[in-house]
Automatic annotation (TrEMBL):
Pfam families: CarS-like
Keyword Cytoplasm tagged: no
Keyword Transmembrane carried by entry: yes
Organism expressing this protein natively: Marinobacter panjinensis
InterPro entries reported in the protein's UniProt record: CarS
The name this protein goes by in its record: CDP-archaeol synthase
Domain of life: Bacteria
Amino acid sequence: MLISLELFVMLVLANGVPVVAARVFGRRWSAPVDGGRLWRDGRPLLGNSKTWRGVVSGMLACGLFALIIGMGLLFGLVFGLLGLIGDMISSFIKRRAGLDSSARALGLDQIPEALLPMILAWYWLELNGLVVAGVVALFTVSNIVLSPLLFRLGIRHQPH
């Protein structure tokens, strides 16, 4: 049970710390991961909200947390990176579908960024598949339910 909570916290860190870093640092270190490139459909590859600052801050937060709780720095760094790659995959798909970065896409906005790192945890930590599914479901539901609250508190820029 504790491992599930720790992994859930890591998912929240990977996806939440980049938002906090953007608030703290403003435009500093905000170079977009896609370099501003467009895909062959003329739309942004990922968009300006996917930054190197976000990748580094999300990875470091997960890495440090994993180190503190005894899972190891390397596991945490890779876990965080996979969560952010999952988020970038979601953004790529949303751009291809013509959706803005602020557009709501239930499931697509949560599942890839939770599932990719949880697959790593499944193998690295030899977890039961039910633990993986449970943490992904918990992250998905909590993200959908709590995002409007975080928006009202001024932490998120969109209510979803």
